[in-house]
Amino acid sequence: MGIMERKRKRMHIAILDDEPEVCTAVRVYLMEMLEKYWAEKAARAEIAVFHTAESLLAAFENSSYDLLLLDIRMSGLGGMEAARRIRSVNADVGIIFLTSSEEYLMEGYRVFADGYFLKPVGVDEEAFRAALARVFARREKAEKALSMQYNGRSIEIVFDKIFYVDLDGGRLHIVLAKQGLCFTRPYTYEWALEHLMHDGRFLECYHRILVNMDKIERMEKEAFVLTNGAQLPISQRRRSAVRAGYMQYLLNK
């Protein structure tokens, strides 16, 4: 067994605007874009409409959304503040701002928005399509997983949960945030190398050690320090190439 994407589920999208007619226009345009460029996603799309940021935040606590299209200037809590609160608990959800003013542009980038568009929506189709493509690429990346057998049962290990991979007593060792799983054949280090290196997130920083670069907190002279506190050595022989590979990954993110 190897790489798989988790079972395709409904794509949950939320539109926030205090003007019902704007919500309708955005919904129509979004579906037109999905049907034109991503027909399979259009068939799975479920779109919820909210007229207050408070109602969106309440729904977000109990539901998982893939994409949010947010008006910024609203009475009461605005879309920008809603985005800040959502980003504090979810780094993956796509956020696209729709507004009548450019004054909040820099704030939009501070919450890592995927796009910022002036109303009426639909003026710049190529830019809107590019923003949607960024969202979908990130969501698809988050769904990648290894399908494996562990202690007699089938499991999926999502790439994003892996901190690093190495050998432990000659067995494949996959380390997550707070635990490590050891596997016997057919799961070898070479098997992991074949399945993970094509993803782009993983770097062989030392002989038979693969690190998930998204989990690196900082790079020191001779080691990577991960967000869970683990320290992984950097190969002395390949130090320049390893450090360059990590810096290039950061630049391309």
Give me the secondary-structure topology.
Blueprint (H helix, E strand, L loop, with lengths): L2 E3 L5 E6 L3 H18 L1 H6 E6 L2 H10 L4 E5 L7 H9 L6 E6 L5 H6 L4 E4 L6 H19 E7 L2 E6 L5 E5 L2 E5 L4 E4 L5 H8 L5 E5 L2 E4 L3 E4 L3 E4 L4 E3 L5 H14 L1
Parallel strand pairs: 2-3, 2-4, 4-5, 5-6
Antiparallel strand pairs: 1-7, 7-8, 9-10, 9-13, 10-11, 12-13, 14-15, 15-16
Overview of this structure, please?
- It is a single chain.
- It is built from eight helices and 16 strands.
- The longest helix has 19 residues, at 125-143.
- The chain is elongated.
- A hairpin with a 2-residue loop joins strand 7 (144-150) and strand 8 (153-158).
- A five-stranded parallel sheet has the order 3-2-4-5-6, with helices on both faces. A five-stranded antiparallel sheet has the order 11-10-9-13-12.
- The chain is an alpha/beta fold and 253 residues long.
